[in-house]
Amino acid sequence: MTSGLGNLSVRQRALVDRWLPGATVERDHSWGLVETTVLELAHAGSRFIVKAGGNDDAHIERELHAHRHWLHPWTSRGRAPSLVHGSADVKVLVTRYLPGELVLGSKHADYPGTYRQAGELLALLHAQTVVVDDDYERRENERALARFGEPHRIAAATVERLRAEIASWPTPPATLVPTHGDWQPRNWLACDGVIGVIDFGRAGMRPAATDFARLAAQEFRRDPSLEAAFVDGYGADPRETGAWHRNRCREAIGTAVWAYRVGDEGFEAQGHRMIAEALASREA
């Protein structure tokens, strides 16, 4: 029996044991704030990553879709882990281990070359397919408004201001591409100076500029040279003013509400700062 899989459900453990019989857990990479379990396993002289979701998880299905439809430009270059096994029904998948040091918190997080490579990789993902969605903006506005019905600590006056903002926005057709959904150093690995990508649980069809949002709120804000390198690697800047402002507001609301729900006070504070900066940019 594969050992060290106590955080997985009975069905998940049974599948992993069938796929990797006798494997041993080498390390637990789980984040701890969400119900996803991430384990590094050794089996038959190779290393693998097992990801398993809880009962309410929607990330594993999105990650499997990304692996099966969008990741070839990266996996073919050895820049993302390749899928070995997966079950959307049981909410578990196995990928080959991708070696490297997490960029977040490392020296690589301050190198413009890291961001140039990240821009190049993102351009490969986005270039695969394009669709026009007439209803995307309306749906995203409704999702943002629905966030206010969840527990949060956004000031009542700010909520009313954001509601008025959202009500005033146009809802033009949106051009969507395959996106990572959480594009930032927390999901990049550096191995001998080469950047790789992990964690596709938020992958989905969205406007290309949405993959700039996490970086704009964090790394670009502290060092403009990182932004310049990233845009240079990507090849262009897709952040059209009106759509970018709308996305910044929605992203800020989602950050503040989600972080409060999971108890991440630092990230919640970032969400409140993002709200203030998005609203201030509208006034400028």
TrEMBL record:
Gene3D superfamilies, sorted: 3.90.1200.10
Residues in Aminoglycoside phosphotransferase domain copies: 78-242
The name this protein goes by in its record: Aminoglycoside phosphotransferase domain-containing protein
